[in-house]
UniProtKB/TrEMBL annotation:
Origin organism lineage: Eukaryota, Viridiplantae, Streptophyta, Embryophyta, Tracheophyta
Keyword Heme in record: yes
Protein name, per record: Peroxidase
EC number, as in UniProt: 1.11.1.7
Function, in words: Removal of H(2)O(2), oxidation of toxic reductants, biosynthesis and degradation of lignin, suberization, auxin catabolism, response to environmental stresses such as wounding, pathogen attack and oxidative stress. These functions might be dependent on each isozyme/isoform in each plant tissue.
Organism encoding this protein: Castanea mollissima
Main localization category: secreted
Disulphide bonds in the chain: C16-C59, C65-C262, C144-C176
Domain of life: Eukaryota
C-alpha cells in the first residue's frame, strides 16, 4: 500500500499532464489485445503492482506505481461498460516489497461473509462497500484451484457447497474435475467481459463462482445489498465508485518513493535507506 501523501485529482497537471490519458490509452490497447488483462490489472488495486512502460517513457520517475494502479483500475471498469469517475492522485510507493503486506490482507476465496465483514471493517470499509467491491468480480476469471474445495469437500464434509445451483455445479464439475490442472480458469460471472450487475443476478441464482462470492447471498447481513444491486445497476455503480474511492484513500503512514520499476523498490545505499524515502513537496 502507498505511503501517506496529500491526494488530489490534478496532482500531475504540472509535471505529467498526460498521465491519465496515457494510462487509459494503454488499458484500451490491452483490452483489445487480451480482454481479460484489464480484469487482472484491476485486481491490482486490491493487491499488487505492474509496470507501465509507456508512462516511464513520457514521464520518467514522476508518476507513482500506486497512482498508476488507481487510474488503471478505474479505466478497467470504465472501458468494460461500468461507471467512470475522477480519482485522487499523489500516492507514493512503499519502500518495502508489497508482496508480504498484500498477502497478509488478501482474503482467501474460502472466506465467508462474516470474516470478510470483519476484514473490511478493519479498513473502515462498510458491509455495503464489501458487497459493492466484490461486484468487481463482474469482470475476469479465477482458477479451478480457488474452488476445488467448494466443489468436492466444502468445510471438510466431503460434499459440495450446498449453495451452488445444481446445473451450475454440473458445469463447474466439468470445468474442474478432481484430476484437473488447477490453473484452468472459469468466468467469475456470466458476462465476464462486461462490467454490469450480472454478477449479483448470478449470486441470487446460486451461480457465484467463488465461495467468497456466493456467501454474500447466503449471509443475511450482506444478502440485502446483493438483492438491491441485482435489481438496480445504477445503485450498484454508485456504490462501487464510493467503495473504490475509499479503497484508494487507504494509506499507511510510512515514507515513500516513486518507483522506476513497479516490481522492485528503487536501488539505494544502506545510508539513505535508514534515512527513509523522500516526501513529495
Ligand atoms: C471481498 C474479498 C475478495 C476476495 C475473497 C477475492 C478473491 C479473488 C480470487 C480468489 C480471485 C481469483 C484468483 C485466481 O483463482 O486466480 C479473484 C479475482 C479477481 N478479483 Fe477479487 N477478491 C476480493 C475482492 C476484490 C476487490 C475489492 C477487487 C477490486 C477492487 C477484486 C478484483 C478482482 C478481479 C477483477 C478479479 C479477476 C482477475 C482476472 O481475471 O485475472 N477482488 N478475486
Amino acid at each position: 500500500m502507498a505511503a501517506a501523501a496529500q491526494l488530489r485529482p490534478d496532482i500531475y497537471l504540472p509535471t505529467c499532464p498526460n498521465a491519465e490519458s496515457i494510462v487509459r490509452g494503454v488499458m484500451k490497447k490491452a483490452l483489445i489485445r487480451e480482454p481479460r488483462s484489464v480484469a487482472s490489472v484491476m485486481r491490482l488495486q486490491f493487491h499488487d503492482c505492474f509496470v507501465n512502460e509507456s508512462l516511464e517513457e513520457v514521464c520518467p520517475g514522476l508518476v507513482s506505481c500506486a497512482d498508476i494502479i488507481i487510474m488503471a483500475a478505474r479505466d478497467a471498469v470504465a472501458l468494460t461498460g461500468g461507471p467512470d469517475w475522477k480519482v485522487k492522485l499523489g500516492r507514493l510507493d512503499s519502500l518495502s516489497p508489497w508482496l508480504e503486506e498484500s498477502n497478509e490482507i488478501m482474503p482467501s476465496p474460502r472466506s465467508n461473509a462474516s470474516y470478510l465483514i470483519d476484514l473490511f471493517n478493519k479498513f473502515n470499509l462498510s458491509v455495503e462497500d464489501l458487497v459493492a467491491l466484490s461486484g468487481t468480480h463482474s469482470i475476469g476469471q479465477a482458477r479451478c484451484f480457488s474452488i476445488m474445495f467448494r466443489l468436492y469437500n466444502q468445510s471438510g464434509t466431503g460434499r459440495p457447497d450446498p449453495a451452488i445451483e445444481p446445473k451450475y455445479r454440473a458445469k463447474l464439475n466439468k470445468l474442474c474435475p478432481t484430476n484437473v490442472d488447477q490453473n484452468v480458469t472459469g468466468d467469475l460471472d456470466a458476462t465476464p467481459r462486461v462490467f454490469d450487475n450480472q454478477y449479483f443476478k448470478d449470486l441470487v441464482a446460486g451461480r457465484g463462482f467463488l465461495n467468497s462470492d456466493q456467501t454474500l447471498y447466503t449471509f443475511t447481513q450482506t444478502r440485502s445489498f446483493v438483492e438491491l444491486f441485482s435489481k438496480d445497476q445504477s445503485v450498484f455503480f454508485q456504490a462501487v465508485v464510493n467503495g473504490m474511492l475509499k479503497l484508494g484513500d487507504l494509506q499507511n503512514n510510512q515514507p515513500g518513493e516513486i518507483r522506476s520499476n513497479c516490481r522492485v523498490v528503487n536501488n539505494r545505499g544502506i545510508k539513505s535507506l535508514t534515512l527513509g524515502g523522500y516526501q513529495r513537496s
